Amino acid sequence: MIPSRFEYYRPDDIRGALAVLNEHGDDARVMAGGHSLIPMMKLRMAEVPHLIDLQGIAELRGIAIDGAEISIGAMTTQHDLIAHAGLADAAPILREAALQIADPQVRYMGTVGGNVANGDPGNDMPGLMQCLDARFELVGADGTREVAARDFYEAAYMTARDDEELLTRIRFTATGAGYAYEKQKRKIGDYATAACAALISRDGDRIGSASVAMTNLSDVPVWSQAAGDALVGSTGDAAAIKAATDAALADIDPTGDNRGPVEFKKHVAGIIISRAIARALSRA
Amino acid sequence: MNDMTPEREDRVANLKGMGCARKRVEDARFTQGKGNYIDDLKLPGMLHGDFVRSPYAHARVLSIDTEAALALPGVIAVLTAKDLEPLNLHWMPTLAGDKQMVLADGKVLFQGQEVAFVVATDRYVAADAVELVEVEYEDLPVIVDPFESLKSDIVLREDLAGQTSGAHGPRKHHNHIFTWEVGDKDTTEAVIDDAEVVAEESMYYHRTHPCPLEPCGAVASMDKVNGKLTIHGTFQAPHVVRTVASLLSGIEEHNIRVISPDIGGGFGNKVGVYPGYVCSIVASIVTGKPVKWIEDRMENLMSTAFARDYWMKGRISATKDGKITGLHCHVTADHGAFDACADPTKFPAGFMNICTGSYDIPTAYLAVDGVYTNKAPGGVSYRCSFRVTEAVYFIERMIEVLAIELNMDAAELRRINFIRKDQFPYQSALGWEYDSGDYHTAWDKALKAVDYEGLRREQADRVAAFRRGETRTLMGIGLSFFTEIVGAGPVKNCDILGMGMFDSCEVRIHPTGSAIARLGTISQGQGHATTFAQILATEIGIPADSITIEEGDTDTAPYGLGTYGSRSTPVAGAATAMAGRKIRAKAQMIAAYLLEVHDDDVEFDVDRFVVKGAPERFKTMADIAYAAYNQAIPGVEPGLEAVSYYDPPNMTYPFGAYVCIMDIDVDTGVTDIRRFYALDDCGTRINPMVIEGQIHGGLTEALAVVLGQEIAYDDMGNVKTGTLMDFFLPTAWEVPTYETDHTVTPSPHHPIGAKGVGESPHVGGVPCFSNAVHDAFRPFGLRHSNMPHDHWRIWKTANGLGLHG
Questions:
Q1: A184 touches chain B (CB under 8 A)
Q2: A4–B128 C-beta distance less than 8 A
Q3: Do B667 and A271 touch (CB under 8 A)?
Q4: What positions does the domain Aldehyde oxidase/xanthine dehydrogenase a/b hammerhead occupy (chain B) (predicted)?
Q5: Which domain holds residue B295?
Q6: Which of B367, B568, B638, B713 is the most buried (most CB within 10 A)?
Q7: In sequence order, what are the residues at sequence separation of 6 or more whose Cβ sits closer than 8 angstroms to the Cβ of residue A150?
């Protein structure tokens, strides 16, 4: 658990970070809260000759709510998400999910940007951002672009972000939909055995919109269009929940690990998805 | 009485002696980050060691190329077995009468085994150099299953080839270590064969690990000028380490000083001697500089001593009314690559023969076969006396299985089989003499406290609701009644490497009436500095706050066998009381002289000696201490000191009654502990607050083991649970609120009647949590399922019982 030698940079603006990234290419990595990268470096599974610490960049922090548009800086911590009163009204699912990430000490350091950018299928925020249909702002030498969370993840640790780009901001629209983030884990600090985010709103006595996404049930977060479609137009009765759950299960591809074999994970996923949908419905 | 004399109860309170919930004096430094742990130690010129470890579980080592590592600036040396061989230190004896490679000698036998030791000026350089050491391996077939091992043609321990006998008798196979038998085999089998009711069960108590917060480490410092070797380390038995170091190195024992500083938890993991200690000592002798070695968490989990790994097969017989008539137990014990179990020499399976538990079982037989596999060596007693957790788990599961066989309530089955109060001292069928107990009183108190009848009614309602499809949550009522055997032990039958398992205390009273006491034990969090001062305070009448307790420095402390197996209070605590009584005896003579009466005319009263019948005439202990140093007292030597080496006449037998109420989500396997009630009887209670803390800790480690904590291997011998991501260490979130309670049945042979408590909650807690899981599924036909009861295994149980529709 002793890392190899590395150069440490602590730029105070985005331009400074991009300059180091451009200079060293593959040999440089940015670090947000460090909860994923530092252990990998200590295990010598990640060789990072040039480490760029983003803690000094003030413009990457902060939560802005402009009408229905919410913008969250990449270096905003999970704790900041939980403590922000406006955000709890505008997107309560975010608070509910952030409270299920590890423990307070981790949440004081762990950032939303690091969580979504790392591409770790175990992280909670990617699925959540897909559920919210968030967009990620990427800044590189050639300028700024936006990628939808639902298009961002390619494979485990592989994302649409170029090596020389920085994920700077997350944007999404406030939602009054019924919400739930349901997660089963072995203990505090563990990745999910299965987790599911659900946002559901009613239109009269029918479901008007539904979004269902899952965590750690494939090598990428899984947003299930079919699950949402199965709910929309229904009354949200048991049959609809079952149809949506079956549809969501058809979209996952979990692997066996110490949490249990695939058979178990699929069964638990079904339970967790059903509970998330039912709880979101109860709030819709 | 003199108006200035405080009331007697005020004087008692002022002592903060036995029975006082005195705050822990250690906590001021621990809670402020001012502890002094081994890694805090920085000596001038200190070098740093790090290991090259085997990625293979079984492989031949063809070559080790150290050239590139040695070329790295800052690297001082790279030690291999070849370098240790001329010193005869490439192998070392184990506590179990086997030997163990210090560094790989021709082959490796488990993943993570030490292959080479890099010494560098800097910890980071040492880690870099480890990567530069090139080891060429030829992999060999791996055996991780002890039953397969006993059938295999593959010889794991080539160094033992042809040896048909080991430290504990005949070896039946080249991968077999020993067979240990206790009890009457023929009679037991006859009783069971003819019994009205017999229950059989096989159970695997999985391999786990004590995982103390602080891993193991050492700083060795050889002073070549004065020839003295100082070894600072995470040692639960520093004096034994000194003796072993002397025997191994040839350095005379007076030239070796072993210091255990603050230790961040041991739980058995820090009893043994590890290659890291030996290598840091050799490296310091070679370089003439201090050498530090600290393992990281992964090294701790994969290479230092594991616990359990017992495959237990039981048969228990009873009359149709439930009176137990016989017990048969066979254990296949997976000891890993080397037999490095930490047990008293004559007990290769520890005190597993306490497996008749708290019950009056007239006939019993136990056989244990130790087996080599390609897993890490160890076999320590993780928060229990030697193998007692295994024994108690075994009997408490067998009782539950017998209750199923008899279609009887498990609480009632226990009650009708308990050893009765009037049977103590009780001779067990497997050779122990239980000192004292009152099991029925404890059991009735526990069941009443939790409203056992009401719980059973609630559970029946829940099962009915489940069957009607109204709930998916089952309710389990976990019961356990345990008897521990601690305080090893009588020198006549307990030794470690030939050293009798006595312990010691040396007390020195200062002229102004304060004191220092030094003991042969060493606290790893138990709070000795608090509680031993309380024992002394009551014995000698000096306030606990005026008594310093010191342990862990072999140059100053009297020889003792250390702290494990809940032995500190039963053995060193007794030595403390006895040393205190010697002080008091001398103080009585001084007091009588000062009061100008005969010795027999004064008596001890809390903090003073008073003239019998004239309490206004007295001398306080402070007066007496001063007189001991400033007056010539005829026939009495100056000073006030005493030392006691205590050889206990018997073990002590703490016991307790636990109840766990658990809800289980059948669909996800998630468990929720609604309530946990723990009644402990540890004899005389020294500090109720420290006892409660010990119980919370032991129960939490029990919960960990039951619900998920394991060292698991794949078929290739790779450790699958080598980090805290997968090795379950519960946080406050996973831990329920514990209710504690007690009865007091003093030990009749211990000077103050205390029995020890640190490990009881672990011993009793494991079967209690596990029985709760089993109890929830009993109405659906479950007899037994192996731990750990993590989500997926509980789910698998439910699935196997057809509960997922």
A1: yes
A2: yes
A3: yes
A4: 32-141
A5: 38-140+215-263+270-303
A6: B568
A7: A130, A133, A223
Q: How far is A2 from chain B (nearest CA, A)?
A: 6
Which one of A2, A6, A44, A191 would you mutate to disrupt binding with B, by most B Cβ within 10 Å of its Cβ? A2
Count CA atoms within 13 Å of residue B177 on its CB side: 30
B119 has which bridge partners?
A: B49, B77
- Shortest CA distance to B217 belongs to which of B230, B233, B236, B231? B233
Do A74 and A138 form a contact (C-beta atoms < 8 A)?
no
Which residues, 6+ apart, have CB-to-CB distance to B213 below 8 Å?
Answer: B264, B265
Classify each residue of B274-289 as buried b or exposed e, where b means 16 or more C-beta atoms within 10 Å of its C-beta.
bbbbbbbbbbbbbbeb
Min Cα distance B303 → chain A (Å) is 15
User: Which of 3.40.228.10, 3.10.180.10, 3.40.50.300, 3.30.43.10 would CATH assign to domain A7-52?
Assistant: 3.30.43.10
Identify whether B534 is a catalytic site residue. Answer: no
Give pLDDT, residue B566.
86
B8 at interface of A, judged by CB pairs closer than 8 A = no
Residue type, A53: D
What is the C-alpha to C-alpha distance for residues B796 and B123, in angstroms, rounded to an integer? 46
Indicate if B768 belongs to the active site.
no
Query: Which among A44, A187, A259 has the least Cβ separation from residue B734?
Result: A187
* ipTM entry: 0.96
Q: Is the dihedral of CA B150, B155, B157, B162 positive or negative?
A: positive
Beta carbons of B479 and B677 less than 8 angstroms apart:
no
The count of C-alpha atoms lying within 13 angstroms of the C-alpha of B298, restricted to the half-sphere facing its C-beta, is 17
Chain segment B245-296, per-residue pLDDT in tens: 999 889 999 999 999 999 999 999 999 899 999 999 999 999 999 999 999 9
| Helical spans, DSSP H, in B596-736 | 621-630, 688-707
| Residue B236 a catalytic site member | yes
Considering the domain architecture, whether residues B294 and B311 belong to the same structural domain is answered as no
Backbone torsions φ then ψ of B645, nearest 5 degrees: -110, 120
* Mean pLDDT, residues B508-516 taken together: 98
Interface of B with A in 710-749 (CB under 8 A): 712, 720-721, 725-726, 728, 730-731, 733-734
Q: Which CATH architecture has domain A181-283?
A: 2-Layer Sandwich (3.30)
DSSP code at position B4: T
Examine the residue annotation and report whether B390 is marked as an active-site residue of this protein.
no
DSSP state of B431: S
- Cβ-based contacts of B298 with chain A (< 8 Å): 1
Q: At what angle do helices B760-777 and B388-406 cross, to 10 degrees?
A: 30
**pLDDT tens, position by position, B96-114:** 999 999 999 999 999 999 9
Whose CA is closest to A68, among A133, A117, A10?
A: A133
SS3 B13: helix
Which residues of chain B have a CB within 8 Å of the CB of A184?
668, 670, 791
Whether residue A25 lies within 8 A of chain B, CB to CB, comes out as: no
Closest alpha carbon within chain A to B792 = A260
Counted residue by residue, chain B has a size of 805
Q: Which CATH number fits domain A60-173: 3.30.420.10, 3.30.499.10, 3.30.465.10, 1.10.760.10?
A: 3.30.465.10
CA angle B9–B14–B17, rounded 5-degree value: 90
| Interatomic CA distance for residues B713 and B719, integer angstroms | 5
Domain shared by B76 and B225, yes or no:
yes
| Residue B339, SS3 per DSSP | coil
Residue B805 is predicted with a pLDDT of 81
Provide the shortest C-alpha distance from residue A14 to chain B (in Å).
31
Cβ neighbours, 10 Å, residue B31: 10
